[in-house]
Amino acid sequence: MLKEDENVTDLHAVEDAFVPVIKLKYAGIELDILFARLALKVSVFQ
């Protein structure tokens, strides 16, 4: 999905990070996207 966007460049995963991280540039702006698991009893997407 991100690979197909023409505004996205320098897309790569940081495999040795403590938490999953995707680094990319979107329209020239550097972004780090971090992922985390939340232990919730209620669904966030209701």
Explain this structure to me?
- Residues 1-41 form the Poly(A) polymerase nucleotidyltransferase domain.
- It comes from Cylicostephanus goldi (Nematode worm).
- This is Poly(A) polymerase nucleotidyltransferase domain-containing protein.
- GO terms for molecular function: poly(A) RNA polymerase activity.
- It holds the Pfam family PAP_NTPase.
- This protein is mainly beta and 46 residues long.
- It has one domain.
- The protein contains no helices and 3 strands.
- The protein has strands spanning 8-14, 21-26, 29-34.
- A 3-stranded antiparallel sheet has the order 1-2-3, with no helix packed on it.
- A hairpin with a 6-residue loop joins strand 1 and strand 2 (21-26).
- It is extended.
- The protein starts with 7 loop residues before the first strand and ends in a 12-residue tail after the last strand.
